[in-house]
Amino acid sequence: MTILTSNNPACITVDGFKQLLKDAHPFSELLEIEIIEIGHGTSVLLLPERTSHQRLGGMIAGPMLMGLADLALYAAVVGATGNAAAVTASLSINFLRKSPPGGVLANCKIVKTGRLAAGEVSLVPAAGGEPVAHAISTWSLPKSST
User: How far apart are CA 95 and CA 125, in angstroms?
Assistant: First the structure.
């Protein structure tokens, strides 16, 4: 088990992660999420403002926020471990308040890696303000077949 406290470099670059998504996870393009930063166990992603992300009343739909959180966690897990075969084992999200119109930033941090990884994501309006949701997740890290 590794508790992530170091300033090690990320195991994947933003460009490398974008290529991974294009090659292995083309469905991720549906939300048009922007990958802003990937560190060793951290990530920052942006769900851009799109009317297609909104539900009645103009708020960002919950499934869009869950997709953003899950992708931010995947980026941070791959950034910490280099294991592109990682899969979500659990994801729990708490919606804290109505998400105002505009983009939403996901700030993710992985707190543990090993056979499983665990992390958390805070979702905040891109224009600033209080978090609109908070998610926690565990990830299964399959052993490399090579």
Answer: 13
